[in-house]
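Today's session is about reading a structure prediction critically. Students often jump straight to the picture, but the first step is always the sequence itself: look for stretches that repeat, for charged clusters, for runs of hydrophobic residues. Only then move on to the predicted structure, which in these notes is written as discrete structure tokens rather than atom positions. Here is the chain we will use throughout the hour.
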Amino acid sequence: MSRCTYCDFHSSAPDRTALSAIAPRWLAAVERHLAQLSQRFEFSGFSTIYVGGGTPSFLPSDILAGALSAIAESGVANGNVAIEWSIEANPEDIDADFLSIISSHGVNRLSIGVQTLEDEARRLAGRRGSADATRRILDMIAARWPDRRSADLMYGLPAQSAAGLAKDVRALVDRGFGHISLYELTLEDGTPMERGARAGSLALPDDDERADQYDAACEELLSAGFDHYEVSNWALPGQECIHNMHYWNMDDWLAVGPSGVGNVNIGAGRFMRLENSADDAIYFDDPSGSVHEVLVTGLDAMFESLMLALRTSRGFGLVAFAERFGHDAVEVFGPLHELFAESVILEAGRWRATARGMDTLNRVLVRALSNSERFYDRLHSNDEGTR
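Below is the predicted structure for this chain, in token form.
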């Protein structure tokens, strides 16, 4: 069976010096874990590879090259070269040497965390480098990187503007980026930005301003020919992220690195979730032994499959659901296309979110979950009655 792999670089190291000190132990643990996974699971090669989470571009060059070699030796064997091999990077870490290393190991998709090209927004968000410096790096990538390139942008940042975000989108499109992810700012407890917002010393855009920013970005993407193929992701036709589509379809993927999470189908609508330890030291000492395995089954598995599939323009296949779980989706979740006619359509045996539905998906899912819980209660009540 062909599987996907995901390499996560989570680390508690506070700076680059500390990171360099633990990087050899991280690499040794990743190599051990890949060997352990290859013994436990049978696969003929990785169909997709994604090196991301944390900051892989922050790694010392020799460690990065070692990690890419280990992945290639483990999962790109017998001529089964991955269709898509992505790596995440911060613009400030990218130079000719970095591009040479990843290209020589088979990486063919570069995903860059741009976030914003407005200087004041970058400063308040704690981003390294100026907007001009980032543009120069993007120019270098456009000139030197011949394969696919993707970028992340954010909206809702302090000091960000709708016009500025639209300009950011144009800057990326003009430099050949065929995939753009658009994420709304989420404040995490205890971060400097969260503390500033709570104290009133940092002004964040209000709901209307965030909506204006999002609409401006969407307008630019549509005018450039991008498809809104997933809630947060836009791509030119044929440049969708294949690896992420495996996530949304609840396919199989294996994960190495601290805090990485894998997923393996074990039949009868059940999934084994493999959660690597997020503690560097624990993971380094025993990568496979530190994994927490969770069985996802029943209502949890059914709802997760609906939630992920409805995020995509491809939508949720009712026949595939019945084959996987042995239940009719309409009986489980209710007739969502009738309950939310402006948000969900039924077409060719699939539920699909409309453009409006993509933006209001939560209310559909809340109702679907409530309906599924009632279905599950009835199902178990019937089981009890037949005993």
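Discussion point for the tutorial: The radius of gyration is 22 Å.
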